[in-house]
Automatic annotation (TrEMBL):
Its cofactor is pyridoxal 5'-phosphate. Residues 14-82 form the HTH gntR-type domain. It comes from Brevibacillus reuszeri. This is GntR family transcriptional regulator. Signal peptide: none annotated. The lineage of its organism: Bacteria, Bacillati, Bacillota, Bacilli, Bacillales. Pfam families: Aminotran_1_2, GntR.
Length: 474
């Protein structure tokens, strides 16, 4: 049996389970815990370390969620096989940059009692009073420059705060000069594709993607290669076979199917990109919201070759109407941005950028995010409880544990169209998933999407109760 001897400090600010998690993670990356080594049981390790079972269980859960370990029924946890590289480069070496020269969403027009649309947020808990005060502050005469175009890369102070926020919450390593603020995910992607088009002839992307991304890709002359989806993320063999110059992925919470790209596959994907000098586009659209385990570190945080382009949005944190997104560009693409090798000048409203900056500076943004994580965690659990209560065990729930949506396969003999129509007849909106497939053969059979962010807990319970009665009819 493998022996683990971490040095745990109960007086440290960092929780015991995080200390243990980091120790085991480090030992595995360094190769001191070999692949297929069996980890001690929770009970045995807790006794050895003289701690309760809770921190050990939490550490193991996080390792399992990130793919560092695999679970074998009735046997235990085993170390996964990792592709590890040289991680000795410093942040300054890796990210040195030249100095710059100066779709299918919830309906808001139809009267539907229970709308489980993707993309909805809880507007009732938005900090209206604080935000109104901040916007009013931006519109004072002394801030009259807010009415002009502003910095076409995004307000410098806001970029600095976003860089700090991303490092603290997602492990992203970048300088403020690498960040370009955009007016929503699709605008940021459109800008990125313009910067990449000289280098990319073949784009590999997940076999199912957001419909807006799919539509945008079709506007460019990229040859598209679909990547099969497995329980732990994209097929790495499909990546190798694609001969692609760039790969688009949602590794922390695949959209729409919800799986997480395992650490082993992350290392292999990064190694492939470094060897081929290909780009990886990481869309971390809802990485802030993970329930039960610590948020999965971003793929960009593991990148030592500057091949990952990180894409994020404030649509889940604040609301889609703000149209605030951001790209973290590697130096080569950043140089093209500064040389104006694209068709954009101002990407996002300086007024909203300034208001967000003030929101972050005051500490209110961090407090708002803590509140929303707690709120969405509770709604997520209410949804799962309702599905467990009302649906038989034969029904399958996919993609739980992260984000603001899950998928449901009722297994009642209805096809996708019948499911959507039957639900609407009783005042419940659910959404098809076939629209996200790059081609019909990649569709999941009879699967609907349930977004829960915009519904109250009682609405979730009532809506699922109606669905269960409706889907129970053959």
């Amino acid at each position: 049996m493998l022996q683990l001897t971490p040095k745990l400090d109960e007086g440290a600010k960092e929780a015991l389970y995080l200390q243990l998690y980091r120790y085991i993670q480090g030992e595995m990356i360094a190769g001191r815990i070999p692949a297929d080594a069996r980890l001690p049981s929770i009970r045995r390790l807790a006794e050895t370390l003289g701690v309760s079972r809770t921190p050990v269980a939490l550490a193991y859960d996080q390792l399992l969620a990130e793919g560092y370990v695999i679970s074998k029924p009735r046997s235990g946890l085993y170390a996964a096989e990792l592709e590890t590289g040289n991680r000795a480069q410093t942040l300054e070496q890796t990210y040195a940059t030249p100095s710059p020269p100066r779709a299918y969403h919830a309906s808001h027009t139809e009267s539907v009692p229970y709308d489980f649309g993707y993309g909805s947020i809880d507007v009732h808990h938005f900090p209206w009073t604080k935000w109104r005060r901040l916007v009013n502050q931006c519109l004072l005469p002394e801030n009259n420059r807010m009415l002009l175009y502003g910095d076409w890369q995004g307000e410098a102070e806001l970029r600095a705060h976003i860089a700090q926020y991303l490092h603290q919450t997602r492990g992203v390593r970048c300088t403020p000069d690498q960040i370009v603020i955009g007016a929503g995910t699709y605008h940021s992607l459109d800008l990125l594709f313009q910067l990449m088009k000289k280098d990319v002839s073949t784009l590999a992307l997940e076999a199912a993607v957001n419909d807006g991304v799919k539509s945008l890709v079709q506007q460019y002359p990229f040859a598209c290669h679909p990547l099969g989806l497995e329980n732990d993320g994209i097929s790495i063999q499909d990546v190798v076979n694609s001969a692609a110059d760039a790969v688009y992925v949602t590794p922390s919470h695949q959209f729409p199917f919800g799986m997480t790209l395992s650490i082993g596959k992350r290392m292999k994907l990064l190694k492939w990109a470094a060897e081929r000098r290909a780009y990886i586009i990481e869309n971390d659209y809802d990485g802030e919201f993970r329930y039960g385990t610590r948020p999965i570190p971003s793929l960009q945080s593991l990148d030592e070759s500057g091949r990952v382009i990180y894409l994020g949005t404030f649509s889940r944190a604040l609301g889609p109407a703000f149209r605030l997104s951001y790209l973290v560009l590697p130096p080569s693409l950043l140089d093209r941005f500064w040389k104006k090798q694209h068709s954009y000048d101002q990407l996002s409203s300086p007024i909203l950028q300034k208001a967000l900056l003030l929101f972050m500076q005051s500490g209110d943004f961090e407090r708002h995010m803590r509140k929303m994580r707690t709120l969405y965690h509770r709604k997520h659990d209410v949804l799962l409880e309702a599905l467990t209560k009302h649906f038989p065990k034969s029904a399958k729930v996919i993609g739980a544990g992260s984000g603001l949506h899950v998928l449901l396969q009722p297994g009642n003999g209805m096809d996708e169209v019948e499911l959507v129509q039957a639900a609407e007849q009783v005042g419940v909106k659910v959404y098809p998933t076939s629209v996200y497939a790059l081609s019909p053969e990649w569709s999941m059979p009879a699967t609907v999407l349930l977004g829960f962010g915009g519904l109250a807990e009682e609405e979730i319970r009532a809506g699922i109760g109606l669905l269960a009665k409706t889907f129970g009819r053959e």
